[in-house]
Design goal:
With 281 residues, the chain is mostly helical. Helices cover 67% and strands 2% of the residues. It contains 8 helices and 2 strands, in the order βααααααααβ. It is globular.
Length: 281
């Protein structure tokens, strides 16, 4: 056999990185921890003592790093990707971190979000979650944004990027249809990211005399109404700007960047075996 593969040949490397059982288990575990850490104001009963631990974010940060390593290790082991794929992950995380200060968050202009959408689409949910979390961690080191909010930002960005890898049609949908899907997802997920980050900081307002602050003595429905009013009043402008910026950059730069990422992914997984549609000769 010489030269190129026959027309009927196809390589698994052309598809996004898939989740195996271990990768899925690690992702479910870290997501469950994240949901509990972010959503406890609506999960805990009124007057629960859990409110006294609202500022234990450093412990969450340490646990999150361990779980991220588990997700990355399981994904690499089950996908068959080698050091080149890990290097590509590092390059994308560094690029995303460098993009974050471009708009300095002014009016929600944050170019890194469109890169996370496209990267998650190509790399798949396992690598996507790790990429989003690592990018946010690297950008915090770059901008001096390290604080108790960081683990929640890492979780939110991990979910944001993972969601792009879970969108349908990864192996078939291309062209304008795929761009429209990614742009629509980016618009909605940008608001979702903002809601998660807002929810992480909102309980710290407890004790303030305001109809917008968290009330540890109120029920989930009352606190949900308070939170939605708080998010609408304080973050809607940033969330909308982030969403519109993500849509614009996805439509403008998406075609070229998707081709580049898919080509890089194929080369990173060059050791993946080639299979054939028909019997060989």
């Amino acid at each position: 056999m010489t030269g190129t593969a026959p027309a009927g040949a196809r390589s698994r490397a052309a598809d996004p990185v898939r989740l195996g059982p271990r990768s899925l288990a690690a992702l479910l575990l870290v997501s469950a921890v994240g949901v509990a850490a972010v959503g406890w104001p609506f999960l805990a009963p009124p007057s629960s003592r859990i409110a006294s631990h609202a500022q234990d974010a450093p412990w969450l940060f340490a646990g999150l790093l361990v779980l991220l390593v588990a997700v990355l290790a399981a994904t690499i082991a089950e996908s068959g990707l080698g050091p080149k794929a890990v290097a590509m992950l590092g390059v994308l995380a560094a690029t995303g971190a460098a993009l974050r200060p471009v708009g300095a968050g002014t009016a929600g202009i944050e170019p890194m979000f469109f890169l996370m959408v496209l990267s998650g689409r190509v790399l798949g949910p396992g690598f996507g979650f790790t990429l989003g979390s690592l990018t946010m961690f690297a950008s915090a080191l770059l901008t001096g944004g390290v604080g108790p909010w960081l683990p929640f930002q890492m979780l939110a960005m991990g979910w944001f990027t993972m969601g792009a890898g879970l969108l349908p049609g990864a192996g078939r949908l291309r062209g304008r249809g795929e761009l429209a899907l990614l742009a629509g997802y980016g618009f909605l997920a940008a608001f979702g990211y903002g809601l998660v980050v807002d929810l992480a900081g909102w309980p710290l307002l407890a004790g303030n005399a305001s109809n917008l602050s968290f009330d540890p003595h109120a029920g989930p429905a009352a606190n949900l109404a308070r939170f939605l009013a708080y998010s609408l009043a304080t973050a809607m402008g940033w969330n909308l700007g982030r969403a519109l910026c993500t849509v614009a950059l996805t439509l403008l730069l998406g075609p070229a960047l998707l081709r580049a990422l898919r080509r890089a992914t194929r080369r990173a997984a060059f050791e993946t075996a080639v299979t054939f549609d028909g019997p060989g000769t």
